[in-house]
């Protein structure tokens, strides 16, 4: 397993800050949320949207791939990016 040095981590966080600032400059004010409920089997699922445009893309944490992905409001709220529940063995 590789570890990130603190200098690398600072650069990554700076990249995130730059991306968020670019969204704000473009008028796409990011709004952070956490889906939690029966649609995603009661698993916390962070996502980012913008309240300024209804048709703007959403960035959601896909529970299957364990990565953030660009999606739509409809696909996210429909539960397309959640992990299927595992069946309990008897």
Molecular structure report:
The protein is of the alpha+beta class and 90 residues long. The chain contains two helices and four strands. It has helices spanning 6-25, 73-78, and strands at residues 31-35, 45-49, 58-62, 67-71. The protein has a four-stranded antiparallel beta sheet. Strand 3 (58-62) and strand 4 (67-71) form a beta hairpin. The mean pLDDT is 87.
Order of helices and strands: HEEEEH
Biggest β-sheet strands, sense, barrel: 4 strands, antiparallel
- Binned strand content: 15-25%
Question: Which bin fits the share of residues in helices?
Answer: 25-40%
**Which value, in Å, is the CA radius of gyration?**
16 Å
Strand adjacency order, main sheet: 1-2-3-4
Q: How far do the termini sit from each other?
A: 34 Å
Number of helices: 2
Short structural summary:
The chain is built from two helices and four strands. It has 90 residues and is of the alpha+beta class. Strands 1-2-3-4 form a four-stranded antiparallel sheet.
List keywords for this structure.
90 residues; 29% helix; 2 helices
Q: What secondary-structure arrangement, pairings included, does this model have?
A:
Layout: H1 6-25, E1 31-35, E2 45-49, E3 58-62, E4 67-71, H2 73-78
Antiparallel strand pairs: 1-2, 2-3, 3-4
């Amino acid at each position: 397993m590789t570890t990130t040095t603190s200098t690398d981590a600072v650069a990554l966080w700076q990249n995130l800050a730059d991306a968020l600032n670019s969204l704000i400059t473009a008028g796409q004010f990011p709004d952070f949320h956490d889906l939690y409920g029966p649609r995603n089997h009661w698993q916390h699922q962070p996502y980012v949207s913008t309240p300024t445009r209804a048709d703007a893309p959403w960035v959601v944490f896909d529970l299957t791939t364990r990565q953030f992905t660009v999606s739509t409001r409809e696909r996210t709220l429909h539960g397309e990016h959640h992990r299927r529940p595992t069946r309990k063995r008897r």
